[in-house]
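User: I want to check something. If I give you two sequences, will you return the structure for each one separately, not as a complex?

Assistant: Yes, each is folded on its own. Here is the first sequence with its structure:
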Amino acid sequence: QVQLVESGGGLVQPGGSLRLACVGSGFTFWTHALGWFRQAPGKEREGVAFISSSQEIKYAHSVKGRFTITRDDAKNTVYLQMNGLKPEDTAVYYCNADVSWIGYWGQGTQVTVSS
């Protein structure tokens, strides 16, 4: 079955960096677009970054210039490099893949930006 497993979250000071990773299994990873979403307490889940199978990339305006999404299809892994973190980036970050018209989510990884 399709599985997405995120890792790399944690507590970081404002201005710091983190790299999230999401390993996918149970589907042909290299043929699917992948995305990172986040959900802060009391807020709706929002899209952060997306990367297609052909490396087309889109970012939310709030993270453009600070976050970088990449994928390593040989490792079935998509990454989110987050630099210049701000307190408003605090959220649970989720990996997403749409497989056969069904959206799949990982369990999420907590990112907390605080001094």
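And separately, the second sequence with its own structure:
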Amino acid sequence: QLQASGGGLVQPGGSLRVSCAASGFTFSRSYMRWVRQAPGKEFEWVSGINAGAGSTYYEDSVKGRFTISRDNAKNALYLQMNSLKPEDTALYYCVGGDYYDYWGQGTQVTVSS
């Protein structure tokens, strides 16, 4: 129901945009978020956006560097990541619903020189 894509290997300071295609639920009415999991660590909430895209939220370490957005006409969620750091390396998941109801399979982002 959620298909994330766009991950890859990028050098520190670089940029990457990950995308998520949604199906099987009413995307336009769903709160959406990105969470990540680094190797050996627990899941970490990264960013969230309300259904109408009027409000966005960010974890402190990514504020000013990441931008979440959505296109309800395309059932798509995005995360633009700039000024990437090695500590941003993780598997990034798009998650939908008020109670983390819908999960994608994740896309790997690796920040390394």
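Because they were folded independently, the notes below concern the second chain alone. Residues 71 and 77 are 6 Å apart (CA to CA). The mean pLDDT is 95.
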